[in-house]
Specification:
The complex is a heterodimer of chains A (246) and B (223). Chain A is mostly helical. Chain A has a domain at 30-170. Helices cover 72% and strands 0% of the residues of chain A. Chain A is globular. In chain A, 35% of the residues are buried. Chain B has one domain (2-220). Chain B contains 10 helices and no strands. Chain B is globular, with a radius of gyration of 18 Å. The interface between A and B is medium-sized, with 31 and 30 residues.
Chain lengths: 246, 223
């Protein structure tokens, strides 16, 4: 069910992403201050925005799991957080490269957005250890959802606190897209759409794979029951032979 | 509320008799001050450095208490007994958070005077009421987040590791606000007024996590 529409989505993603990158290199003007390295902005900032939205979406899906009791929501939340974490690594690496090129240091504590992102990333890095150190699958899903809700609400709170921690006299080196000239803004939006589509495609892809694996396991166990009829029921496939769901 | 006060009384009594958490936390805080003295190679601190050392120490001492908060309940079946009782589960949240708050207050009764004696350069007296206000607001936050994280991590196989790894990043906003509020109180040239902006952030943090804990806690003590 998750595989439906995956191919058109993947094609659209590829087109928008390549188009966005092409615009970044050939359409958007070269930054007068920083030169070509500023192009990393078109991949770094969209990835950061999408990763943060993914974290918050994971929290919302966790809340949907706890309120409905439907474990598929937990799987959705898990996949969203898992992909956001992978994107988070990309955000930190590209951010560090950009900081080195623009300000001469690999890490700049005065940039509140980058620092907030690191804190959020560190928090979410414990999501998987927490999840997989709980044996019981129902409890695992419930606790992971609770963590997703707490951490999802923590994301905006953390950004406010870290932003306020900077001395107010410190000038923001890079402000939001509001004051970007037209070509920058359009290119940025196309890149943002591309990265968001990439996230959606990967999410759908992983969900389809997990869903297929689960269905396969259900079929296998039914097959095993059919092959061994009559009492006493012999279980050819012990429970858990297929490994954990996620 | 009667259930919560009974649970709180049980926790306090247990701590008074077994002395499991508070002495260890207080001793840890003292040791941390000594370590900071040698690590920073300073014999007196002021301003932001003093605030940072004080809060990092209190936070880490708090983590020690957080790790142990639910362990006895789980290992000795207290949680099962509680779940059999026909009371609201929020009672357990309230009782545990208040117990942790009491532990933190007891630790600070030792740690803050020790800090003033051992490391603090400027006198602590002029700004003491403001400092107590900051301590109270921050302790509420630590207690709420700590109870939540402790309930979350106690069921995991590696709870001693998972607990601090979750609680420390979650408390970074609290650390920022608490040090921001404490720094002007400990300035070398005499205390400056308490920055209300940071007190507001601390209050907001406490409120957000109290609501979150109230919403989520039910699901952490099921089955």
């Amino acid at each position: 069910m998750y595989g439906r529409g995956l191919r058109p989505l993947a094609i659209v993603t590829l087109v928008v992403l390549i188009g966005g990158l092409a615009m970044a290199f050939f359409y958007a003007p070269v930054d007068a201050d920083q030169g070509v390295i500023q192009k990393i902005f078109y991949i770094h900032v969209p990835m950061a925005i999408v990763a943060l939205c993914g974290f918050v979406a994971g929290g919302v899906m966790g809340a949907a799991h706890l309120s409905s009791g439907d474990r598929r929501w937990d799987l959705r939340s898990y996949v969203a957080i898992h992909l956001s974490l992978i994107m988070g690594v990309g955000v930190l690496v590209t951010g560090s490269i950009w900081a080195r090129a623009a300000w001469g240091h690999w890490w700049v504590w005065q940039e509140p957005t980058l620092v907030s992102f690191l804190v959020v990333f560190l928090l979410y890095a414990t999501y998987q250890p927490l999840r997989f150190s709980i044996e019981d699958p129902h409890r695992q899903a419930r606790y992971a959802s609770a963590f997703a809700i707490i951490a999802g609400a923590f994301v905006p709170l953390n950004f406010v606190a870290v932003r306020l921690a900077q001395p107010l006299t410190h000038p923001r080196v890079l402000s939001s897209t509001g004051n970007l000239p037209g070509e920058f803004g359009v290119t940025f939006l196309v890149c943002l759409a591309g990265v968001a589509l990439l996230f959606a495609t990967l999410w759908k892809y992983e969900m389809a794979s997990k869903h297929a694996a689960e269905q396969l396991r259900a079929l296998r166990s039914r097959l095993a029951e059919a092959e061994a009829p009559g009492p006493p029921p012999r279980r050819a496939v012990p429970a858990g032979v297929g490994g954990p769901v996620s | 509320m009667r259930a919560a006060s009974a649970l709180l009384r049980k926790d306090i009594l247990l701590e008074l008799r077994s002395r499991e958490s508070v002495p260890a936390m207080a001793l840890f805080a003292l040791t941390a001050f000594v370590i900071f003295h040698f690590g920073l190679d300073r014999s007196s601190l002021a301003g932001s450095l003093a605030a940072g050392v004080l809060w990092v120490t209190l936070l880490l001492a708090g983590v020690l208490g957080i790790n142990r908060l639910f362990v006895a309940e789980r290992e000795q079946g207290g949680l099962d007994g509680f779940l059999l009782a026909p009371v609201d589960r929020v009672a357990l949240l309230v009782a545990k958070a208040l117990a942790l708050l009491a532990f933190l207050a007891a630790v600070e009764l030792v740690a803050v005077p020790a800090f003033a004696l051992l490391l603090l350069g400027p006198p602590v007296w002029p700004a003491l009421p403001q400092l107590i206000a900051v301590l109270v607001l921050a302790d509420v936050g630590i207690a709420v987040v700590g109870t939540l994280v402790s309930a979350l991590s106690v069921q995991t196989a590696a709870r001693d590791l998972i607990g601090p790894l979750i609680s420390l990043p979650l408390m970074i906003p609290l650390l920022i606000a608490a040090t921001g509020a404490t720094t002007p109180l400990l300035l070398a040239g005499g205390a400056a007024p308490l920055p209300l902006r940071w007190m507001a952030i601390l209050g907001l943090y406490d409120a957000v996590f109290a609501l979150l804990a109230y919403a989520v806690f039910d699901f952490l003590v099921e089955d």
